[in-house]
Design a protein that fits this description.
The protein is mainly alpha-helical. It folds into 2 domains: 1-72, Multidrug-efflux Transporter Regulator, Chain: A, Domain 2, CATH 1.10.1660; 76-116. The protein is built from 5 helices and 3 strands; from the N terminus they run E-H-H-E-E-H-H-H. Strand 2 (31-32) and strand 3 form a beta hairpin. It is elongated and about 75 Å long. InterPro entries: DNA-bd_dom_put_sf, MerR-type_HTH_dom, MerR_fam.
Length: 116
């Protein structure tokens, strides 16, 4: 079993995040020592923790993460990841359009300067 500080380093989740995830029942410790309230995690917790790191990187909301973790079959996971990917692709396209508009704006401005 791993103490919070060790588990935090292993998973990349901060102690504060782990505390919050336990509070909302997203990733609960497997054991809490009644004598000192130290929280402990195990190897199964590690797998869930690393999985949550990926979901967080994939821009999943807390509600979506809870839905995925509570759906133990992971039946909807592939569809959710594809939807997130499509959203990111749309955002990339939007940003590329804005960049092109900026370039066009500068070119217009430079042409106007040279025309004078």
């Amino acid at each position: 079993m791993y103490k919070v500080s060790e588990f935090s380093k292993m998973t990349g989740l901060s102690k504060e995040t782990l505390r919050y995830y336990a509070e909302i029942k997203l990733l609960e410790p497997v054991y809490i020592d009644p004598a000192n309230n130290y929280r402990y995690y195990d190897n199964g917790s590690y797998l869930v923790g690393r999985f949550l790191v990926y979901l967080k990187r994939f821009n999943f909301t807390i509600q979506e993460m809870l839905a995925v973790v509570n759906d133990e079959s992971f039946e909807n996971l592939e569809a959710l990841i594809h939807a997130k990917k499509r959203g990111l692709e749309a955002e990339i396209e939007r940003i590329q359009t804005v960049i092109q508009e900026m370039d066009d704006f500068f070119e217009m401005g430079m042409e106007d300067e040279w025309d004078d």
